[in-house]
Amino acid sequence: MFMSSNACSVPTTFWLTGIPGLESLHIWLSIPFGSMYLVAVVGNVTILAVVKMERSLHQPMYFFLCMLAVIDLVLSTSTMPKLLAIFWFGARNIGLDACLAQMFFVHCFATVESGIFLAMAFDRYVAVCDPLHHTSLLTRAVVGRLGLAALLRGVLYIGPLPLLIRLRLHLYRTQTIVHSYCEHMAVVILACGDTRVNNLYGMGIGFLVLILDSLAITASYVLIFRAVLGLSTPEARFKTLGTCGSHICAILVFYIPIAVSSLTHRFGHHVPPQTHILLANFYLLVPPILNPLVYAVRTKQIRERLLRIVKAGTQPQ
Question: Among 287, 266, 284, which residue's Cα sits nearest to residue 103?
Fold first, then answer.
């Protein structure tokens, strides 16, 4: 590392603090975090296996669910192993390129997940408002293209974030990132020099992804609710809304933790830093844990397949 005359430096590595202020509890914190990560991995792998084995689940909604499972595995795996290494071994150092790669995966796949929820909202809109054409419109090829579009959008939106840091921000006041992973703003605030471009780009992407996607999803559900209210009987309304229940729960599980974390970060100036960091970790863990549970509880075919697997595993050989 080369020191500059203004006390800034060119780092080759950064140091992650883990959960600052709670260093003495890191070993104990590793138990709930490690357990939640294990539950997330097992739950999402189980969903992938069940959908693959159960032919009745080879429908657009469950193909999107498989995409969510893969995304959740990537999101949790991009941060939790490093956090557990900090807790267990004090392995706080992370190379600059590894830091930027982690930043890309975290923000990119969060963006992709939002895009998949938007595609699922479109699927529910077609299923409720134009059910006769649902099968012909949402073919496997179309579902695959929607998933690919969500992935490409994530790459195009988030790809410039680490590049702007690499190309524009060379000097840093400190190597210590007060976070448990390489979050964009946690790195940018350490830089010497002009960071306005990085800040504006990050805020712009946040607006495009969270605000516009949530507005589009809300608009689709306004149309869905209008169609449901036009049904003749309460039983038909309840049954139709029931087909959207899992998606609505998954959306709330995804957006509420992000909204709480973002609001706390922006306006909770008196909130301790460890609270900010714990919330930031929870919003990467809560959806991967709860999405499989939501769909397992609310989907009859998934429940039945899981019960058959459990019964087969408990029967004597």
Answer: 284
